[in-house]
Design a protein that fits this description.
The chain is built from 19 helices and 16 strands. By secondary structure, it is of the alpha/beta class. Helix 16 runs antiparallel to helix 18. Helix content is 49%, strand content 16%. The strands form four sheets. A six-stranded parallel β-sheet has the order 3-2-1-12-13-7, with helices on both faces. The structure holds zinc ion.
Amino acid sequence: MAKSYITEAIPYVNAQPHIGHALEFIQADVIARYYRLKGKETLFLCGSDENALKNVQSAEKAGIPIQEFVDKNAQLFADLTKELHVNLDIFQKTSLKNHAITSQTLWKLCDKSGDIYKKLYKGLYCVGCEEFKTKTELTEKGECVEHPGKKIEEVEEENYFFKLSKYQDQIIALIESGKFTIVPDFRQNEVLAFLRGGLQDFSISRSNERAKNWGIPVPGDPTQRIYVWFDALIVYLSGIGFGTDEEKYKKWWPPEVQVVGKGITRFHAIYWIAMLLSGNLLLPKKLFVHEYITVDGQKMSKTVGNVIDPRDMVKKFGAEALRYFCLAKISPFADSDFSEKKLKLAYNADLANGLGNLIARVAKLCETAAYEQTQTVRSFQEVIGAHDAYVASLDAYKFNDALSYVWEKITHLDRYINDEKPWELVKTDMEKLKTVLTHCVGEIQTIAVLLQPFLPETAEKIALQFNSKTIQTAQSLFPRKI
Ligand SMILES: [Zn+2]
């Protein structure tokens, strides 16, 4: 059986989840569901990045022991996946023992390849990014682009470095030959331009003192901890047992696609690939890079005070509605704005009036006509064979285009019903009425199947209602919100 391993970037757990996390969970879930529906055995991993210095700082601020703090916050993320109907197989915490073993195993492999060396380093460090920055990467005010208002620290210490520069040409060749692909193209071109500009070796450890004794010790040097980024990327290996469960690892590695936000493209497209090359491991095939959710055109940030909690939106509109908005109204490849007002508009227009109304309408017609449903129920694989545009959109991670395709079918079917007027046929032409209803029911069954990767609960409800012999009216799928 064909297999696919899908991963999603693991969030820092120094704060509660926001709508951006929900977006990524939902997008990655659609990809995983799509592969499963296509008949591939699929494993979908996410987890939590717990070894970061900013977790230590946040825990100190909250006056809670670090482990307790990260456990509590990681649970919020794990719970959110359930609330969003995200079907994760593995939630790998990086403070677990099995992760430490994997992390140290890869370190040793890179060391064996001669790619790790010690050096005195002085640089500007953003704790928000957990990354050294060059002056040219900072704003005019000398602040990090991703973390305005946060202090940049000047740091000098002896660290272990990774020979990233050694892999520059090899990674360029991998991308150019299509062995490793970054989606979309413009992100791939950005990565290629960065690679051609030359790579600098990067620091992959911190002193115990600066890491506040938190994180994974460097093998053979108890005075240093593995740098959080080097360590966090390894979650994709630890979650499937690299170094701890050889059978599981062999079954699933490498990933078919890795899902990340644009802010961490470089880590995944370059650092990570170099680390794997150094360890002589197989490489992921694809990197899907999504853009950000903005709020009133601004980046979400605690300082601005515009952070949106996805759990509030789920309470108000339901998980399926939030999924719909994130997939249909947020472009995967351009920053898109989110507001409760926009969510409500989309809910009423597309879900209550569009899909919900169509379902209620056809069910009512079938019930009134005592229509008997006899069509064979088709699988996802059978159905998509006739919907090339939908498949092409999903293959390119253009979730919004795939959903536009489904909503066009909804609009067409509404129009068809208006033209055929089955409520009149019920009095005049039962034979024709049967033909019309058969068409409607068939179309709704198709719509339900096409919705499966996107709105799993809704798709199931519709299928349950329309695949039975007698179709009856049911509770409204999406009651109008006032
Ligand atoms: Zn930063």
